[in-house]
Amino acid sequence: MARLGVGLLLLLAPALAGALLPLKDHPLKRQAEAGLLAARKALEAQAAPLALNAQGNYARLGYECTPLALCQSLPETAGSLTLSLVLTPFPFGEVADGLERARLALRRAELGYRRALAALQLQAASAHGRHRQALLGVRLAEKGVELSALALEAARKRGAGPKELREAELNLKEAENRLEEARRALALAERAAEGLVDLKAPFPEVPPPKGTTPLSLEEARLVLREAEIALGAAQRALLPTLQGSLLLYPSGNDTWALSLSSKTLQPTLSYTRQDPARPPTAVPNAGSYRTAEELRLSLNLTLSPGLLAALEASEAQKRAAEEALRAAELQAALQEAGLKNALKGAEATLELARLKKASAAKALEEARKRLELGLESPLGVLQAELGLLQAELALVQAEYAVKERLLELYQFYGELLPEVTE
Q1: Contact 108, 36 (CB under 8 A)
Q2: Phi and psi for 274 in degrees, rounded to 5?
Q3: Which residues are within 8 A (CB) of 278 and not within 5 positions of it... i.e. 6 or more apart?
Q4: Coil, strand or helix at 230
Q5: Are 258 and 267 in contact (CB under 8 A)?
Q6: Residue 248 phi, psi (nearest 5)
Q7: Which is the CATH superfamily of the domain at 2-60+79-280+288-413?
Q8: Which residues pair with 299 in a beta bridge?
Q9: Is 17 helix (H, G, I), strand (E, B) or coil?
Q10: For position 17, what pLDDT does the model report?
Q11: H-type alpha helices, 158-214
Q12: Residue 396 to residues 131, 187, 266, 353, 392: CA-CA distances in angstroms?
């Protein structure tokens, strides 16, 4: 199990390369890692093949004796020390339940790790995309200021009326305000990306997901398995418990014991040293004897309405988990279809945005050629440049919309980005 956890972390490490490198120190990732480590250690503790227990007792004794001199021969204190070794040759009963619950907890922690990192990847893509859009927004606003300033200058040169000049001045003021707003949006986008993504590095390509089992189904299956374990425990609670012990008394001070219970089938070997020693049992007018060995068998059976009610509750809980799994399957299928449909829509928008950018680039090229021939004004060229910037902004928005739709599918499946070679 330790190798499984290490292998999982090594598998996830490549996703943090390049632009996603800041995620390695993100608090949510560290929290998920700590939960994964805790679950793995809990499983190791549950799967330990043996346990050693030590128990000590001390008592101070007081007597009332007849005759009084008898008290002087009695011990003033009594003590004992017991060392027990509990072995688990194979998991059974309650031990098997505890081990299976620990495995389920580890699996739940692994799913939580995948969910956390998949969500961070999506946030990183959104932050990277917003920053790219904010950069283009600033360039677009700067071009708007340049265009408004040129329009105002042209109006002044041709002697435009006061109203037209006022409108041109207001347009320039509005363009300057949009530029300031765009710069503030850029600063906010940079701040929002801190700890999520390296804005200087290109965001990695996002291939289509493999389409594994959705996280919601994985979690629903874990809930069903937990309900099955609880039902098995409730059923065993109605069965009798058989306890067997073999005790050896090599001396009055020493006791060796080997015991076994049908609830766990864990053999327990213990040694007890006590002081004072057990005195022999006196038989009047015949002598005394000391027990050298002892075999004990006990049978315990508890029947109560509470146990039957607990069994019914466990059966109902299992049925509820089964229905929840079926509901999760239906919901997952619907959600998967919706996410894939959204991805197709984003891809269609991206293709259209590419065509619009190509058209805007062609329009700018034609405007510059007309300017060289004297058939176009500098204002017309600026308008074409502004149109190209708008098309580039729409293209960036479409590109990151596709990345986000893909990463939403990654989050749905709990998949992570593969290693990126830059």
Answers
A1: no
A2: -130, 150
A3: 249, 252, 253, 290
A4: helix
A5: yes
A6: -120, 135
A7: Outer membrane efflux proteins (OEP) (1.20.1600.10)
A8: 242
A9: coil
A10: 54
A11: 162-193
A12: 10, 18, 64, 9, 6
Which element (helix H / strand E) includes 313? Answer: helix 305-372
Bridge partners, 79 (sequence order): 58, 275
Torsional sign, CA 278, 284, 288, 290? negative
Quick one: DSSP state of residue 304?
-
Give the C-alpha separation, 383 to 367, whole Å.
9
Residue type at 222? L
Q: Give the strand pairing for 50-60 and 281-283.
A: unpaired
Whole-angstrom distance, CA of residue 252 vs CA of residue 250 = 7
Asked if residues 146 and 176 have their Cβ atoms less than 8 Å apart, the reply is no
pLDDT reading at 9 higher than 60:
no
CA distance 219 to 230: 17
- Judge whether residue 295 has pLDDT over 50: yes
Closest CA to 113 of 15, 18, 224: 15
Exposed / middle / buried, residue 193 (Cβ in 10 Å: 0-12, 13-18, 19+): buried
- Which residues is 53 bridged to in the sheet? 84
pLDDT in tens, 76-104: 899 999 999 999 999 999 999 999 999 99
Q: Distance from CA of residue 255 to its chain's centroid?
A: 50
Task: Indicate the DSSP class of residue 280.
Answer: P
- Helices 215-236 and 305-372: crossing angle in degrees, nearest 10, is 170
Tokens of 100: 């299976």
**Nearest-10 Cα torsion for 310, 315, 317, 321:** 160
| Token pair belonging to 221 | 């299956």
Q: What is the C-alpha separation between 215 and 409, in angstroms, rounded?
A: 11
Spatial neighbors of 18 by CB under 8 A, at least 6 apart, are 198, 201, 202, 204, 420, 422
- Has residue 422 got a pLDDT over 60? no
Given a cut of 50, is residue 257 above it in pLDDT? Answer: yes
Exposed/middle/buried for residue 101 (C-beta within 10 Å: 0-12, 13-18, 19+): middle
Reduced to 3 states (helix: H, G, I; strand: E, B; else coil), residue 344 is helix
Judge whether 24 and 62 are in contact, CB under 8 Å.
Answer: no
Asked if residues 268 and 258 have their Cβ atoms less than 8 Å apart, the reply is: yes
